[in-house]
Amino acid sequence: MARIAVVAGDGIGPEVVGEARKVVDAVLPGVEVTEYDLGAARYHRTGEVLPDSVLAELAGHDAILLGAVGDPTVPPGVLERGLLLKLRFAFDQYVNLRPSRLWPGVASPLAAVKPGEVDLVVVREGTEGLYAGAGGSLHRGTPAEIATEESLNTRHGVERVIRDAFARAARRERRKVTLVHKTNVLTHAGSLWSRTFEVVAAEHPDIATEYQHVDAAAMFLVTQPQRYDVVVTDNLFGDILTDIAAAVTGGIGLAASGSINPDGTYPSMFEPVHGSAPDIAGRGVADPVAAVLSAALLLDQLGHADVAARITAAVSAELAARSPEVAVRTAEVGDRIAAQAVG
Ligand code: NAD
Ligand code: IPM
Ligand code: MN
Question: Which Pfam families match (predicted)?
Answer without folding.
Answer: Iso_dh
